[in-house]
Amino acid sequence: MKRSWKVIIPLLLVLVLVLTSCGKKVDQEPPVSNEDVSQQPEDKGDQGQDEPDVGAGEIVLPHPMTIKKDGATVGGTLNVAIVTDTPFEGIFNTFLSSNAVDTQLAEPLQSGFMRSGPNKEIANGGWCDVDFDREAKTATYKIHKDLTWSDGVPVTSDDLIFVYNSIGHKDYKGVRFDSDYHNVVGMLDYNQGKADTISGLKRIDDKTLEVSFYEFTPAILWGAGLTYQAEPAHYLKDIPIDEMEGHDRVRISPLSYGPFMVSNIVPGESVEYVPNPHWFGEKPKVDKIVAKRTGSDTIVEALKAGTFDIVDKINVNSYPEYKDLSNITLTSAMSRSLGYLGFKQGKWDVETKKVMPDPNKKLADVKLRQAIAYAMNNEEVAELFYNNLRIPANALITPYHASFWNDKQEGYPYNPEKAMQILDEAGYKDVDGDGLREDPKGNKLQINYLSMSGGDIAEPLAQFYIQNFRDVGLDVVLQNGRLIEMNAFYDMVEEDNEDIDLYMAAWSVGSNPEPSGLWGRDAMFNYTRFAADENDKLIAAINSNDAFGETGMDNEYMVKAYHDWQKYAMEQVIVAPTHYRIELTALNNRVTYWDKDPMNTDWGWEKVGLLADTPEKAK
Question: How confident is the model at residue 59 (pLDDT cuts 50, 70, 90)?
Fold first, then answer.
């Protein structure tokens, strides 16, 4: 499809991915146990290496990204592990789900609807292309003529309109309705009941939809205000939006337009998939996929026994136990995730749908946040808990978005002396001589720390950080005196539980690195509830029309705008980033193909085959 104007986005910072089986240097990855949390709870899996070298701009992967084996495949059943210590939610709907496990479960149902370019911007070549017109302030979807739901109904423009109508509905309680969607013409009027339809949506024909924006910002090129997936309007439209999340058509019998469809679900435990008879792409190479939940404490034994063919994002605290198994091959890839320590600084106003900071919150003091960040020994955490398979993070943009990540920014390296100096100067002193600091008014200061259960290292990791804080004189205690199960943890964080001061989480970002969806004033995902005029201003600069030159994107402007925001975010310690991550995937030797290279846009579950009837066991 021909674009109306040319978008030029070269890779400005080179992210070197050296594909060796025994890389040595720095890495990053997905979380495990209680750091495996997030607004979009992160999956488990990890690695990182040797001395952190943030600033070098070089990331060396310890294993290849791609495994491809020749040989005839045998059909059969592909067994996939879903590593989580609690039953999964199983919400098969892109605008209702908000965690990485559900996203993982939905992958076989959604194959390459939209593609990404070298900087993760939207590119043509998927099952839905997008044509951008800056002057007209529009983006036009064009759905592939043969794309069809698993019940035989074609995927149409109505399925995209349905997503917009659902996200904009007054009864929608999900997390997608943010400032990106506010920019769609007529979206707010529809949400507020002033209009029956969204005026900025123009249905051209069954396969073409035009979306108009009030402002055409750079973020639109990365999907701001656009949906990356369709949902079946004919199948879901009669279900009230506030009842949809729990409906059987979302939880038990979802439709698919990908190579596989759901054939059976045991809620919270397993999902079976079979080939979609209406899939028009490459024929799937296996007869069935079975994705089954398994605990992090049993996954290594399961790998040895050949119970699973694929363990994606496998946790890294067990790395020494599985790295040399004879029956598996490991692959690695740059993760989109970021671990962080969050500081509760306010509430979410459900009426205005905005963050409401509270200056009386304990962590509203930026000096206290800075001290806590310096007190965290993330370098030792990477070594002791993650086998040197993570590296300390220096910014809230990750190396996954190499063009905009400021690899030279220092961040908050471990420096307890500096932490204590900041606390002293800010008036946090030990008044009563018990070794713990009071607040600047002389009142006892106890800080509640909410941390997630899951895996063997969850408790010792939480206690390690608590000791870090006590080493600088801060009385930090586990909230409720214990770790909290994942689902309850997220309920408490999302609902702004009054007792939370600190919480440990992780984020998995999408293709668009623009920060308003995570850290903006209008973002429900902004769980810290931080908001400030300067933050608004710097985020607005990233989204400004000043980013466009005469022929397309002004790369120099964009890099500076991202670097300016990253510097401010770290100075204010919106959150304290902990680690970047690399995803590890363990494959049984009978698996023929796995590819997590982000530049390979042709990979899909239909390409995964098996070389033998039964999985290989460890010798």
Answer: low
State the DSSP H helix or E strand holding residue 583, giving kind and residue range, or none if neither.
strand 575-588
Does residue 455 surpass a pLDDT of 50? yes
CB 298 within 8 A of CB 562: no
Which pTM was predicted? 0.75
The most distant pair of C-alpha atoms in the chain lies apart, rounded to whole Å, by 75
Give me the numbers of helices (H) and strands (E) for the chain, helices first please: 16, 23
Of 381, 403, 394, 335, the C-alpha closest to 11 is: 403
Residue 1: pLDDT above 60?
no
CA distance to 270, 381, 504, per residue, from 486 (Å): 18, 21, 12
Look-up: residue for tokens 């990053």?
A: 28
- pLDDT, one tens digit per residue, over 494-537 is 999 999 999 999 988 777 888 988 999 999 999 999 999 999 99
Separation between Cα atoms, residue 597 and residue 548, nearest integer Å: 29
**What are the φ and ψ backbone dihedral angles of 340, each rounded to 5 degrees?**
-155, 160
442: alpha, beta or left? (left if phi > 0; alpha if psi -120 to 50): left
pLDDT exceeds 50 at position 16 = no
Distance CA 257, CA 576 (A): 40
Q: Token pair 């946790």 is at which residue? A: 315
User: Burial letters for 133-162: b for 16+ Cβ neighbours within 10 Å, e otherwise?
Assistant: ebeebbbbbbbbeebbbbeebbbbbbbbbb
- Distances in Å between the Cα of 422 and the Cα atoms of 242, 260, 332, 419, 427 are 47, 56, 39, 5, 9
Tell me which of 40 and 434 has the higher pLDDT: 434
Using DSSP, state whether 260 is helix, strand or coil: strand
